[in-house]
Amino acid sequence: MTDEIRRGLAGVVVDETAISKVNPETNSLLYRGYPVQELAETQPFEAVAHLLWHGELPTGDELAALRAEERRHRPLAPDVKAIVDLTSLGAHPMDEVRTAVSALGADDLAGTGTVLDASGSHDDNLARSVRLFAALPAIVAYGQRRRRGLGPVHPRDDLDYAANFLWMTFGEEADPVVVSAFERSMILYAEHSFNASTFTARVVASTLSDLYSAVTAAIGALKGPLHGGANEAVMHVLREIGTPDEVGPWLDRALAEKRRIMGFGHRVYKNGDSRVPTMKHALVALAEHVGRPDVLALSDALEREFVARKGIHPNLDYPSGPAYDLMGFDTATFTPLFAAARVTGWTAHILEQQAANALIRPLSAYVGPDERHVPGSAGG
Ligand code: CMC
């Protein structure tokens, strides 16, 4: 055992995983051996979800079965809608999603006898994973609509996951360019080894708590701007800058104030994030589709200038923020979209943790006062 402290667990290998491989040398990311960009170019999101849970891409029958199950769990349950409706309209949508998932768990686990029964079997947890995968789009879509004073839109069985998600959000069928960009973003966001939210989920699962508790905790971890909240933060930054001409003076001020520039940098990738080119491609297609070259001009200008000054490269949140904006999502909905995608990775990791569990319980180096005693006590 070593007493060396690695703050933020930086560089610490905590456990093994067969779900994804992040290679900082080549800036590559593999899901179960497949390069993520290949999956994003060729597969529907449902097939990637199956891959993450089962280790192999689905056969035609397996994909059809998952799609049928996903459709079955799509509608927003009345109890969950009621809970969402009780959430303050001023709350951040991530708080709403966290609360809704917690409520789904309470509903699904009702009747569980004791804490000893809560973690459940592998099959129980696989079924719960599909349920969450299917339920989150309705929760996220309704959250955005509620903020706009609109009611929920019933899902459409003739549409697959990505197209139906957009349908439930906007109440109109999305153009194939938009569906394709959205689906790619979901695949790119789905999994990323022991990132902060996934590790959080594994910590909770390691206590033999239930899958919903682990996912609820992961949503809390994802909300922060150093993690999933960055896609929303990118949009605030781009709006604050305004035009490409303002990039230089804005950066002068931001760097003088030692601000973090959102959407840049990564704990593992130091020379670029392999997911960025695929998402950038989708962003370019979207900007052309909706006739907004100004969005690209601004994001390119900030990227050029920041990389030139600091050598810090964009991460996936940098192109996905403006892409979600062009799709018509409210800025506050961006991180819930990330959660809807990452729930596949979280649940795959929870299943993996449960299959070979060891309680995650690290040590700390105590730096507080030496032992002392309350005056008047036996030791005082
Ligand atoms: N803007 C300005 N400076 C930065 C940035 C940034 N975005 N990222 C890193 N740096 C600087 C940092 O100030 C530090 O400089 P110095 O050594 O002079 O103090 C140096 O680079 C190393 O930074 P670090 O914080 O030690 O590196 P880290 O590996 O802990 O940070 C990070 C990773 C993602 C927290 C950080 O890059 C960051 O805050 N980025 C902005 C937020 C963001 O985009 N988050 C999304 C991450 S990717 C998606 C996800 O996993 O959720």
Automatic annotation (TrEMBL):
Print the keywords alphabetically.
Transferase, Tricarboxylic acid cycle
* Pathway assigned to this chain's UniProt record: Carbohydrate metabolism; tricarboxylic acid cycle
Q: Is Transferase among this UniProt entry's keywords?
A: yes
Q: Which Pfam families match?
A: Citrate_synt (PF00285)
Q: Which reaction does it catalyse?
A: oxaloacetate + acetyl-CoA + H2O = citrate + CoA + H(+)
What Gene3D superfamilies would the database entry show?
A: Citrate Synthase, domain 1 (1.10.580.10), Cytochrome P450-Terp, domain 2 (1.10.230.10)
InterPro entries noted in UniProt = 2-MeCitrate/Citrate_synth_II, Citrate_synth-like_lrg_a-sub, Citrate_synth-like_sm_a-sub, Citrate_synthase, Citrate_synthase_AS, Citrate_synthase_bac-typ, Citrate_synthase_sf
| Protein family | Belongs to the citrate synthase family.
* Protein name, entry field: Citrate synthase
